[in-house]
Design brief:
heterodimer, A: alpha/beta, Rossmann fold, 3 domains, 6-stranded parallel sheet, 22 helices, 16% strand, B: alpha+beta, Alpha-Beta Plaits, globular, ACT-like_dom_sf (chain B), transferase (chain B), Acetolactate synthase 2 small subunit (chain B), EC 2.2.1.6 (chain B)
Chain lengths: 550, 85
């Protein structure tokens, strides 16, 4: 069997029936073999788009996403997505073509050292140098992508290995040994929870990735712990729970940040105390002891010393944690704080500028419970995180660690491929949307019913907000008032669209968008003066956040 | 602080790059390095220095799939200076 066929046969064995990619010279034998394979390939319009689609596929299913690109520029175009998947722990296998072995190292056409480029931005990477190593490398790649803390793996394959004969039977891989906590640490953790007066559960993306949402909700049910979520943790806890406080951190909700700052015990579950979460680290949760629960030993004590750490699979650990109800006075304090700091959502159909938080809340109320929402990066991303509610972490796709503009549209495409019957909405900023706008071509090609909502303030809104607040209103290169007319852009791809600018248009426009059968673009014109509140200024403790000026 | 790191690594392409890149990125400087083939593996000893807690580096080195074993010992800075003098 030729190498190209062996790859596709291996993918079928792994249960992979959908991949994303873009063809080119060195990877051409694999594209030739695709014609005779049951694996369905989705052609995106840029390798970065293909890789983000694979990320959307992976994040909306918790399965390994696969993308394919050619050597040289094809491979370098993948790198941003590779780093994105690394920082957000997304299980991904990237297959890149490489020039034939005889030409390697000669600066051949479209030759680049992608193995060298990949080293610091992936979980692991390999270059196949012998035919017999091809299938074992792929097997190892899938295992590494999935095991422990998930992550992306790159496999670089020279063209002559794709065209030459390779043995097909994979070698057995070594089993992965999950790190284990001690019984004593578990006891200490439970004692800390019992003796604490003011505990808070701090939920990260690890919960969803460990398929431990049910176990987390059960823990919350039996203990009544107040809960805060990271950007990636959103959807893990039930948003209707009376002591669910929403996202914490730089643009976290006031009640979430103030509760953490007041707590005497912080229970971090699948979270890494990222700088966007903690604000000024030495003033983060200053009265709290820390229980840190994670599968990755490298996260323990990395940013803050844990009083006790529990390493291992969250799905197994959470049921052993917390046996009794949290003390009532603390629950009452948190509940009162939540009520006093709640956003004043009010349906207002009068003429006037559209309020993005209100619109997103309406969208959240009107969309399906299992709707998948992807977003780009910037102000709109924070508004989505603050104001939309998610039934599962797989319903919220947002570039957290790397913060990559242009993530939203291709990630939505990947999520729609993985979940063909589910409502998928890409909430984009006008700046971010233009970064992978070519993926409108992918939507058109496959007629996927993705809904695109562009929140357009004709600015690079988040950078503008920082220029306004922290750079003496010196607006450098953030004016995008020469944006294209987005509805005409949609029309060029045969995508239906609408434009709104006034509050009174919102409800009907959202209803029309959600009811539309095919792809749809809703262009929402906003006032560029609107900012995201609260905000924790740089090098400031989270309790010193600035709230919306009255 | 100065540390001695003794590693057993799979003899894979880019393995030294991975170790060196991780060391630099996590805030340590390589003061000296020796390597020796050992069957399909290689034994690498490195003396590194840096201000960060060494666990920041060792916990990341442990994540490298080509690392079979790692031992780390703190060294007195003065000894190291004498050795390099």
């Amino acid at each position: 069997m030729k190498g190209a066929q062996a790859i596709l046969e291996f993918l079928v064995q792994q249960g992979v029936d959908k991949v994303f990619g873009y063809p080119g010279g060195a990877i051409m034998p694999l594209y030739d073999a695709l014609l005779d394979s049951p694996v369905q390939h989705y052609l995106c319009r840029h390798e970065q788009g293909a890789a983000f689609a694979a990320i959307g596929y992976a994040r909306s299913t918790n399965q390994v996403g696969v993308c394919i690109a050619t050597s040289g520029p094809g491979a370098t175009n993948l790198l941003t997505s590779l780093a994105d998947a690394k920082l957000d722990s997304v299980p991904l296998v990237m297959i890149t073509g490489q020039v034939a072995r005889a030409a390697m190292g000669s600066d051949a056409f479209q030759e680049v050292d992608v193995l060298g480029l990949s080293l610091s931005i992936c979980k692991h990477s390999m270059q196949v140098l012998e035919p017999q190593d091809l299938v074992p490398c792929l097997q190892k790649a899938f295992q590494i992508a999935r095991e422990g803390r998930p992550g992306p793996v790159l496999v670089d394959i020279p063209k002559d290995i794709l065209t030459g004969l390779v043995p097909a039977s994979p070698e057995a891989c070594k089993d992965y040994s999950i790190p284990e906590h001690s019984d004593q640490d578990l006891q200490v953790a439970n004692q800390l929870i019992s003796s604490s007066e003011r505990p808070v559960l701090y939920i990260g993306g690890g919960v969803g990735m460990a398929n431990a949402v049910a176990e987390l909700r059960d823990l919350i049910q039996r203990t009544g712990l107040p809960q805060v979520c990271t950007l990636k943790g959103l959807g893990s806890a039930e948003s209707e729970h009376p002591l669910y406080l929403g996202m914490l951190g730089m643009h976290g909700l006031a009640a979430a940040n103030l509760s953490v700052q007041q707590c005497d015990l912080l229970i971090a579950v699948g979270a890494r105390l990222d700088d966007r979460v903690t604000g000024k680290l030495d003033e983060f949760a200053p009265h709290a002891k820390l229980i840190h629960i994670d599968i990755d030993p490298a996260e323990i004590h990395k940013r803050r010393r844990a009083d006790v750490s529990l390493l291992g699979d969250l799905k197994r650990i959470l049921p052993m944690l917390g046996k009794e109800q949290v003390k009532q006075p603390w629950q009452q304090w948190v509940s009162d704080l939540k009520a006093s700091k709640a956003f004043p959502y009010a349906e207002d159909n009068s003429p006037g500028q559209i309020d993005a938080p209100q619109l997103l809340r309406q969208l959240s109320d009107m969309s399906a419970d299992d709707a998948i929402v992807s977003c780009d990066v910037g102000q709109h991303q924070m508004w989505v995180a603050q104001h939309m509610r998610f039934s599962q972490p797989t319903c919220h796709l947002s570039s957290g660690g790397l913060g990559t503009m242009g993530f939203g549209l291709p990630a939505a495409i990947g999520a729609q491929v993985a979940n063909p019957g589910t409502q998928v909405i890409a909430v984009c900023g006008d700046g971010s949307f233009m970064m992978n706008v070519q993926e409108l071509g992918t939507l058109r090609r496959y007629q996927m019913p993705v809904k695109i909502l562009i929140l357009d303030n004709q600015r690079l809104g988040m950078v503008k907000q920082w220029q306004e607040l922290f750079h003496e209103e010196r607006y450098s290169e953030t004016d995008l008032s020469d944006n294209p007319e987005f509805s005409r852009l949609a029309a060029a791809f045969d995508i239906a669209s609408d434009v709104i600018h006034c509050r009174s248009q919102v409800a009907d426009a959202l209803a029309r968008m959600l009811a539309h059968q095919g792809p749809y673009l809703l262009h929402v014109q906003l006032d560029h003066k609107d900012n995201v509140w609260p905000i924790v200024p740089p090098n400031t403790a989270n309790h010193q956040m600035w709230e919306q000026p009255k | 602080m100065n540390y001695q790191l003794d590693m057993l690594l799979s003899d894979q392409p880019a393995v030294l790059e991975r170790v060196l890149q991780t060391t630099r990125y996590r805030g340590f400087k390589v003061d000296s390095m020796q390597m020796q083939p050992a069957s399909k593996q290689m034994r690498v000893s490195m003396q590194v220095s840096g201000q960060q807690p060494i666990s920041l580096l060792t916990s990341q080195l442990h994540k490298l799939y080509d690392l079979a074993s790692l031992e780390c010992q703190a060294q007195l800075a003065r000894n190291s200076e004498l050795q390099s003098a």
